Amino acid sequence: MQHFLTLQDLSAAEFKHLLQSAAQIKANPSDYAQALAGKSVVMLFEKPSLRTRVSFDIGINKLGGHCLYLDQQNGALGVRESVADFAGNISCWADAIVARTFAHSTIEGLAKHGSVPVINALSELYHPCQGLADWLTLSEHFDDLASIKLAYVGDGNNVTHSLMFGAALAGASLVICCPKGHFPDAQMVSQAQAIAAEHGGSIELSSAPSELGQLDAIYTDTWISMGDSTKLSDIETKFMPFQVNAEMMAQTQAQHFMHCLPAHRGEEVTAEVIDGPKSRVLQQAENRMHAQNAVLVKLFESGE
């Protein structure tokens, strides 16, 4: 494993190993206190962040490493200075790059032109660190991930892509329920379905929230992604039937609610659900750090 750009690059064994490693790091943090001793990691962020920035910064510190944060006050990567030059220069000093960008091609450029591991901390196509944390969270409630039936409800986006590749690698059952015209990328769905078939899982698409059936967990995200200029008033009528509320939780008998945050109460989810006893959102947020630390440990092991 040279980089961590998307979950679909992993084998099922590698995916499960990262989950197991994250669980071990979470349970025994002192055993990994020097795992990144002497290592420096540069974080390049084009987008604002709470969970990603804090979880990486503190997580790297907990592993004994040093973190340097660079935001892009002068514009996107590649505007003031080429992505290749960013990657080459940072590789002279740092041991890894964590990048949160608008375009996935920027992440790929950093990996291509740099000589150190690159971690995708979010692009418009994928959010693999979130996906890994999501499946770590589910693994803390289910002994067998393949037994899980999960639904993603709302707008198909980068979080959906990573969630479905995780489901495919785990051999779980995932229903992606979106308004027509808002499904995740068709090619990625096809790829995830092929991977799922190899591992006994399934990825299905639906536009009927009332037909979800019995579920173990329901996942949603904001209806309008960061940087999208769409007005809520333009889509609210279309999306409101996909709101996760007490009725949907009861109808599906779901015992777990998930959201990558930030959330908009009263839109994609009601306060009653996200702030209720079945909500796992803070567990997911905490697990971001442990999942990312597992990736960092693996990447530096791979490079030795």
From TrEMBL:
Q: What domain of life does the native source organism fall in?
A: Bacteria
Q: Which residues form a coiled coil?
A: none
Q: Which GO terms describe its cellular component?
A: cytoplasm
Q: Does the keyword Transferase apply?
A: yes
Which compartments does it reside in? Cytoplasm
The protein's annotated pathway: Amino-acid biosynthesis; L-arginine biosynthesis; L-arginine from L-ornithine and carbamoyl phosphate: step 1/3
Aspartate/ornithine carbamoyltransferase carbamoyl-P binding domain location is: 2-140
Q: Name one GO biological process term.
A: L-arginine biosynthetic process via ornithine
Mainly localized where?
cytoplasm
Enzyme Commission code(s) on record:
2.1.3.3
Q: Which residues bind L-ornithine?
A: N158, D221, S225, M226
Q: What start and end residues bound the annotated signal peptide?
A: none
Aspartate/ornithine carbamoyltransferase Asp/Orn-binding domain sequence ranges:
148-297
> Which Pfam families has this protein been placed in?
OTCace, OTCace_N
UniProt binding sites for carbamoyl phosphate:
R100, H127, P128, C129, Q130, C260, L261, R288
Family (UniProt): Belongs to the aspartate/ornithine carbamoyltransferase superfamily. OTCase family.
Q: What is this protein called?
A: Ornithine carbamoyltransferase
- Which organism is this protein's natural source? Paraferrimonas sedimenticola
Q: Identify the coding gene.
A: argF
